Amino acid sequence: MSAPTHTTPYLRPTAPSRRRGAAGANARLHWWTLALPALAFGLLLLLLAGSGEAHAASGEVSGLVRLTEQLLRVVG
User: Fold this and answer.
1) What backbone phi and psi angles, to 5 degrees, belong to 31?
2) How far is CA 46 from the centre of its chain?
3) 58-68: b (≥16 Cβ within 10 Å) or e
4) Cβ 44 vs Cβ 23: under 8 Å
5) N or C end of the chain, less CB within 10 A?
């Protein structure tokens, strides 16, 4: 016994595209899709650049911590 199948009717395009490959041309990115990876890359780069100046026992606040605090004050 076979089951009934549902078929979708063929929909022809209403207007042909003026340029080839324009299927995703109208897609827009949110601002954070570029900003967050760039911010993460920058922070990792700062971590690597400042790793030679490690002051674990001195109790000083590192430049990265100061920069992070300033960024949080500006954003928050």
Assistant:
1) -65, -35
2) 19
3) eeeebeeeeee
4) no
5) N
